[in-house]
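Ticket #4471: structure export looks truncated?
Reporter: QA, pipeline team
Priority: medium

Steps to reproduce: submit the single chain below to the structure queue and open the exported record.
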Amino acid sequence: MKHEIMLNLPIEPHEVPALREQVGWEARHSDYPILFERCSFWAGCRDAETGGLIAFGYVAGTGLQHGYMEDIIVHPQFQQRGIGQALVKKLLEESERAGLEIVTVTYDMKHASFYAGSGFVPCAGGLWRKAADLIEGKQGSVR
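Actual output as written to the record:
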């Protein structure tokens, strides 16, 4: 069954946190719907049978030259079907249409081949986290 990736599809505030929990991430309920007001654009996909949100990702930034792709999420029951790569492709197409020349993403190294297959070139970078997260043991992994 083909799943259609849609840009800026209507999403209820509880849907992305629920999807985040499905993949084992913190829900971050307080981020939604604020995220939709602050990011440049987002994309997602719904299950044709149930209408439930099964994939989500977004690009944030100033809307000038550079954007940052984040939270590429595919429900575990729908992984390994090409939905994630279709989601990234849709976000990159919209990035290009919007005039972005650079899109960056951080990810856990276990996902390196996924992002390389989606057109990203690994490069050196850095990550800053506020001290309270490090002290409280909330380091987590970069997705």
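Status: closed, not a bug. The export was complete when the record was re-opened. Leaving a note from the reviewer for reference: Residues 39 and 74 are 19 Å apart (CA to CA).
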